[in-house]
Please model this.
Amino acid sequence: MKFLKFLFVGIFFGIVLVKSEAVSWYRIFEMFKFQSFHMYGIIGSAVFLGILFLWIFRKFKVKSIEGNQINLPPKERSFTRYIVGGTIFGLGWALAGACPGPMYILLGTGVSSMLLVIAAATLGTFVYGMLKNKLPH
Model:
């Protein structure tokens, strides 16, 4: 029963993404061709809200739903890893027409070709897990 809250949040998130057209292949295509501000507005709003909520969490020492203090460990900064990782992520997003979260939402809306994309993402994750210790991080 404890997982139900996450299921309902996921369903709500999926509805919001579908209604805002954030999972629309046409909107994503417009974004990559710099023809529309729609997706940049959604992504920019998400980044702004993420920054705002992280600031609020740190300032007011907000606790998680389980009552634990929310602490974010400092990240190792490396410009190259962000460029390479972002490029691979962006290429996958452009080729598939969806990033990881919306893949499942699109499958739920009846886009059965997402099964192939989900299988490829799972395989890619598995291969990364196998090669992780050999890659420069």
Summary: The first helix runs from residue 4 to 19.
